[in-house]
Amino acid sequence: MLAIFEHGGKQYKVTLGTRVELPTLEANPGEIVTFKEVLLLSDGAQIEVGTPFIHTLIKAEVIEHGRGDKIRVVKQKSKKRYHKVQGHRQDYTLVKIVKIADAELTTTVSAEKKPRAKKVEA
Length: 122
Fold this sequence. Notes:
The chain starts with a strand and ends in a 22-residue tail after the last strand. The protein is built from no helices and ten strands. It is mainly β. A four-stranded antiparallel β-sheet has the order 2-1-5-6, with no helix packed on it. Strands 3-10-7-4 form a four-stranded antiparallel β-sheet, with no helix packed on it. A two-stranded antiparallel sheet has the order 8-9.
């Protein structure tokens, strides 16, 4: 089972057991968090695409909170003797996907585009 969900302005592609680093969540390690903004769901044979979201849930267990690797931001102006070096470490929450959608897939998406119905003014 494959799913794509949105959290914190980014999209994540996950399967059962996948570990994902997300922007910091307000949850303690061991808690279960739920993501409702599921964009795509696939079981290999069928694909369900949301418009914009699918009515299903993804549940994940919080494993730990941490900080990413340090990056260096360097600013310099040539011939002006100006330079500035600044470091940054992004906070994250590591989660493990434990459950994806217990509902059956109901619709399939084909490669062909379907024409939209036109509005008729009365």
